[in-house]
Structures are given as C-alpha cells and as structure tokens.
C-alpha cells in the first residue's frame, strides 16, 4: 500500500490536475521512518523511503505541467496509532508500556509529541499559495528525534 498506493495516487491525480487551471498540488505522507531507521521497523521504513523517492521523481516529471509534488514527514504524533506501536514494542522487547513512546518524545527538541493540529497546519501550508514554488521536497516536521 505505501508504495503502490502512492504511485497510483500520484498518477491518477496528475491526470486529473492536467485539466485544471488553478493551483495543482500533490501532497504525500511519508513519516519520520522515511528519514531515520528504527529497530523492528525496517520494512515500514523501506516503504517510506520509497515514497520519498517517488515524490522527488514525480516532482521532476510533472513540473512541466505546473503540478507540484511534495511530502510531509510527521514524527511522533500523539494518536491511537502510537498507543498500538508502543504496546507492540512492549510485547516484543519486554519494556513497560509507555516506555518506547516516552523515549522517542524525549528525543524531540520541542519536548512534546506532535498533535493532529500540528500536522494539519503543516499540510495546509503545503496546500497554500505560499508554497507554490516548492516541489520535490519532503519536509521533516520535528526538529530532531533520537
């Protein structure tokens, strides 16, 4: 899904956008795993690295049509998904529930996990006119996660 779904989405959106005259922006989701490798997330990280490269290739391919292609890369977002990830890490490693999540949040320079509003605001920026000259970028949201 991470690779084929994004590829097919880029292709379908590009065909539709070619008939539109207004702002045409394709915005993909990558995740921090597309930048950093994490133990026990190798396959997931590999698919996200692939989305990163698809984003850059599509930006080059569709620039002539006035279509920008970028991606956002959220880090640790405070959602139910992270509760599930943390629980699974606890099962696999024997660490207490909450320990993995806390460890990653401690490595964020801003000292907190992202919220859904943080992600929405960032994606909104990519969709607005202020980012019209940005294409082929995958923008990394957290300052640092270690």
How would you summarize what this structure contains?
The protein is mainly α and 146 residues long.
3D structure, described in words:
The chain is mainly alpha-helical and 146 residues long. It has one domain: Rossmann fold, CATH 3.40.50.720. Helices cover 47% and strands 10% of the residues. It has five helices and three strands. The protein has helices at residues 4-17, 42-62, 80-93, 99-106, 116-127, and strands at residues 25-29, 68-73, 138-140. It has a three-stranded parallel β-sheet with strand order 1-2-3, with helices on both faces. Helix 2 links the parallel strand 1 and strand 2. Helix 1 runs parallel beside helix 2 (42-62). It is elongated. The model has no long low-confidence stretch (mean pLDDT 91).
List keywords for this structure.
mainly alpha, three-stranded parallel β-sheet, single chain, 146 residues, Rossmann fold, 5 helices, 47% helix
Write the layout of secondary structure elements.
Blueprint: H1 4-17, E1 25-29, H2 42-62, E2 68-73, H3 80-93, H4 99-106, H5 116-127, E3 138-140
Parallel strand pairs: 1-2, 2-3
- Based on the structure given, which CATH architecture is correct? 3-Layer(aba) Sandwich
Note the overall shape.
elongated
How many β-strand runs? 3
Helix percentage: 40-55%
Write down the overall mean pLDDT.
91
Broad CATH class: Alpha Beta
